[in-house]
Specification:
Elements lengths: L2 H18 L7 E3 H8 L3 H13 L3 E3 L3 E4 L4 H11 L1 H16 L2 E10 L3 E10 L14 E3 L4 H8 L3 H10 L13 H14 L2 E4 L6 E9 L5 E10 L5 H26 L1
Antiparallel strand pairs: 1-3, 2-3, 4-5, 4-9, 5-6, 7-8, 8-9
Organism: Pseudonocardia kongjuensis
InterPro entries: GAF-like_dom_sf (IPR029016), HTH_MetabolicPath_Reg (IPR050707), PcaR_PcaU (IPR012794), Tscrpt_reg_IclR_C (IPR014757), Tscrpt_reg_IclR_N (IPR005471), WH-like_DNA-bd_sf (IPR036388), WH_DNA-bd_sf (IPR036390)
Protein name: IclR family transcriptional regulator C-terminal domain-containing protein
């Protein structure tokens, strides 16, 4: 690759880093804030911010910078091409009407070296049961979620081994699976059972159950789940009352994906 080409690639990466530096905790930032969070010089951060402002992705009052709604185009292009959100939505709505708990679909993002997240691409909520608001694009560490474990369990053994060898799970609640070895054993159970229950590991009071969603070739391409408050259903009730409905929902999504493909 030529030096000019390498510089273009680096510039794209830095511009994306500037966009990612804005989040729910940092919706507005000064130039110094962006430079500090991205590791860029102030001069470089200023160039990227002004370029993004010229393109309509950032607005500024002269001191503070913030993203504009136009950045949604970037994610929507991916979701539109994917087709999954539109296909999944009506089936999730019917599932929620039946089980009366929130339902979602997510995909896996990342790599074994840097780690994996689940990214929500479709969701139908009921009552809010988490301290954080879940919207399209919300991310959670894959290892700590029911959908994430379903997706991780579908990875090739070599990829999964690389990921787990470098994983250092943090304790999110008193129920969180401790250590990579325990997580490896849990993922083996998920593979065998073809579903996963996570019981108050991501957040106290939250239980969820997830199943895989396959594409037309049989590859696991997404996961669907139902989340409930721990006081509403225990793990046994999730398996007895929700799992059959959740599997039917996933099968209906798969059928529509094949038809639309």
């Amino acid at each position: 690759m030529s030096e000019e080409r390498r510089e273009q690639v680096r510039s794209l990466a830095r511009g994306l880093a500037v966009i990612r530096s804005f989040d729910a905790d940092h919706p507005q930032q000064t130039l110094a804030d962006v430079a500090r969070s991205t590791g860029l010089t102030r001069a470089a951060a200023r160039r990227f911010l002004l370029t993004l402002a010229d393109e309509g992705y950032v607005r500024t009052d002269g001191r503070l910078f913030a993203l504009t709604p136009r950045v949604l185009e970037l994610g929507w292009s991916y979701l539109s091409a994917m087709g999954l959100p539109e296909v999944a939505a009506p089936h999730l709505e019917r599932l929620v009407a039946t089980v009366r708990d929130s339902a979602s679909v997510s995909v896996l993002d990342g790599d074994p070296a840097t780690g994996y997240d689940v990214v929500y691409v479709a969701r139908v909520p009921t009552a809010r049961i988490m301290t954080v608001t879940i919207t399209i694009g919300t991310r959670f560490p894959a290892w700590a979620t029911s959908m994430g474990r379903v997706l991780l369990a579908a990875l090739p053994d070599s990829t999964l081994d690389t990921y787990l060898d470098g994983l250092r799970p943090e304790t999110l609640t008193e129920h969180t699976v401790a250590g990579a070895d325990a997580l490896r054993a849990e993922l083996e159970r998920v593979r065998a059972d073809r579903h996963c229950v996570v019981d108050q590991e991501l957040e106290a009071g939250l239980r969820s159950i997830a199943v895989p969603v396959h594409d037309s070739s049989g590859r696991v391409t997404a996961a669907a789940n139902v989340s409930t408050h721990a006081s509403r259903r225990d793990a046994a009730a999730l398996r007895a009352e929700v799992l059959p409905e959740l599997r039917a929902c996933a099968a209906a999504i798969e059928l529509d994906l094949r038809a639309s493909g």
